[in-house]
Design goal:
The chain has about 260 residues and is α/β, with parallel strands linked by helices. It contains eight helices and twelve strands. The structure holds 1,4-dihydronicotinamide adenine dinucleotide and the ligand O=C(O)C1=N[C@H](C(=O)O)C[C@H](O)C1.
């Protein structure tokens, strides 16, 4: 039987891809598409907005339909609403929204005590695989003579509202945990002096319509490792989120990540 899902932020860049790809998946049934009531297309058919033709689900704030999982690609306020919707519906939550304040993050962790939650800053298979590769590199280089300088560079479209990306922050967190790094900086200016070893720096580029690219640099004396993972469209994220919804539906309450979904 198809997994009944709801999409929060359904008229957004990601929401539209979820509607399009979810509608094409015979193992999924999109029964609700939530949107901000002030959105200019509120009340319209979600399929029409996504460019795939009508799916008989309108962009709304409420639904009488029951669903097994809700996927959130919205904004912090939308994520807050998605958590409440999921808990009230006793549905699994796939949380993809980034740039969340600590209070929102705490609410997600609290919800995971009563519903299954898959929470990841990137739902892309290749990004989560690259995270694993970076952890291997960090472990191997943590005591390398001369040290390894780690910098995280991310590139996104001009419309992205948060910075650095949630994915970049997660790369830094995973590497820092392996290398015992405790200092984080965002860009550099003035005369900061020589770079200390105990530091990870983030650099955010915002240009055009880039759907997401991350480069992780391990800079040694005499040699450098650079790992780059880039998306050419948003479908990698939508596909991963839809897979996460299938994974989480019916699971016991708890906090899961994309390694659990992908078996990494
Ligand atoms: N985890 C992942 O794999 C990925 C995460 N993201 C994140 O997803 C979020 C959304 O990204 P985009 O789709 O590009 O943004 P977007 O701005 O195109 O879409 C956000 C949508 O949320 C809607 N929204 C706002 N408040 C709402 C509410 N209270 N209830 C329901 N909907 C509401 C907006 O009207 C808009 O349609 C961002 O935080 C982004 O960083 C984006 C791509 C991949
Ligand atoms: O806003 C985006 O587009 C993306 N945001 C996510 C993040 O902040 O990590 C994931 C992906 O890079 C695309």
């Amino acid at each position: 039987m198809a997994t009944r899902i709801a999409i929060n932020g359904a008229a957004g860049r990601m929401g539209q891809r979820l509607v399009a790809l979810g509608s094409a998946d015979k193992d999924l049934d999109i029964v609700a598409c939530f949107e901000y009531s002030g959105h200019p297309k509120f009340g319209q058919d979600a399929g029409t907005v996504a460019g795939i033709g009508e799916i008989d689900v309108t962009l709304a704030e409420e639904t009488a339909a029951e669903y097994a999982a809700i996927i959130d690609f919205s904004v912090p306020a939308g994520a807050h609403a998605a958590v409440e919707r999921a808990v009230n519906a006793k549905a699994a939550l796939v949380m993809a929204t980034t740039g969340l304040e600590e209070e929102h993050q705490a609410k997600i962790r609290e919800a995971a005590q009563v519903i299954p939650v898959v929470w990841a800053p990137s739902m892309s298979t290749t990004v989560n695989l690259t995270m694993k590769l970076c952890e291997i590199a960090a472990e191997a280089l943590k005591d390398i003579p001369g040290g390894a300088d780690v910098e995280v560079l991310e590139r996104h479209h001009r419309f992205k509202e948060d910075s650095p990306s949630g994915t970049a922050l997660r790369f830094g967190e995973l590497i820092a945990n392996k290398m015992g790094i405790t200092n984080f900086v965002h860009g550099r200016e003035g005369r900061p002096g020589a770079r200390p070893h105990n530091e990870i720096a983030y650099h955010a580029i915002r240009t055009g319509d880039n759907p997401g690219e991350h480069t992780i640099i391990f800079g040694l004396l005499g040699e450098t490792i650079e790992m780059t993972v880039r998306a050419s469209n948003r479908d990698c994220y939508a596909t991963g989120a839809l897979q996460a919804a299938k994974f989480a539906a019916g699971k016991k309450p708890g906090l899961y990540n994309m390694n659990d979904v992908l078996g990494l």
